[in-house]
Amino acid sequence: MMKMAAARSAYSLTDEKYRSPSGILLHSRTVVEKANFVSTGILSFAEGDILEIEMSEYKVFDLGDTVKLTVYSPGGIYMFESTVVAKDHGALIIINPPQNRNLFAEKRENPRITVKEEGRVLSVQMADGTDRLLEDKIELSVHNISISGIGFTIREDLGIGKGAVVHLHLQLGFEMPCRAEIARTEKTENGEFYYGAQFIDLAKDKANSLRAYVLKKQVETHFRTKREESAKRIFK
Length: 236
Description:
Elements: E1 4-7, E2 29-34, E3 37-47, E4 50-54, E5 66-73, E6 76-88, E7 91-95, E8 113-125, E9 131-132, E10 138-145, E11 149-154, E12 165-171, E13 175-187, E14 193-200, H1 204-234
Antiparallel strand pairs: 1-6, 2-3, 2-5, 3-4, 4-7, 5-6, 6-7, 8-9, 8-10, 8-12, 10-11, 11-14, 12-13, 13-14
Protein name: PilZ domain-containing protein
InterPro entries: PilZ_domain
GO molecular function, one term: cyclic-di-GMP binding
C-alpha cells in the first residue's frame, strides 16, 4: 500500500507559488532507498502515472522493487513509497502515486495516451434511453485512451450524439468489453466520425488490466520520445 508523508517548508503552503508548468519537483535532487541500499539522483520527468529518476546506480534496482523516495524541491521535502516499473540506461521509471498528482502539472485527472488499437461497437443506447440494435457489429479504431475514457473513430454515421451510451468490445492485447457515454462527437477531415467517451462502471478486473495497459504505454512512449530526442541532438 502506498503511503505519503511530507516534511514541508513554509514555501509549500503558499498558493501555487512553485507550481510552474514544469511542476515543482522536476530537476530536484531525489534520494531513492530500498532494503539495504540508498542512492541519489535527479527527478527528470513527471507525467501521467510515471516519474523518471536519473541516477548512475540504476542497475542496483530491480523491476518490482518497493522504494522510498525523498524529493528535495524548492517547495519542501516530499517523502513517499512507490514501485520501480521500468529501467533505462541511467534512469529508473517509478509509479507516480495518485496522491502526488497535485505536485505536478497535470492537464487532466487521467491523462490519455495515443494508441492504435481496434474494436467493435456492439450496441447503442440513445440519449433518450431507447436502444438501437445494430444489424452488424461496427468496426472502430481506438486513437487515445485513459483509465477513465476513450477516443475512437468509425466510418459509418450512427446518428449518435452526446449522452448516448455505447457497448464496446476493445482489443488492447486483452479482451475488454465495456460501456461508455459519448461526451464529444465530430466529423474528421477524411470523412470518419470521431467520438470521445467516458467509461461507465468498468468491472474491477478490466479496470486493473486497463490501468496496467495505460502504464505500459506511458513508459513505452516516454522511452521512444527520449530516443528520438537523443537522435536529433546527435545529428544536428
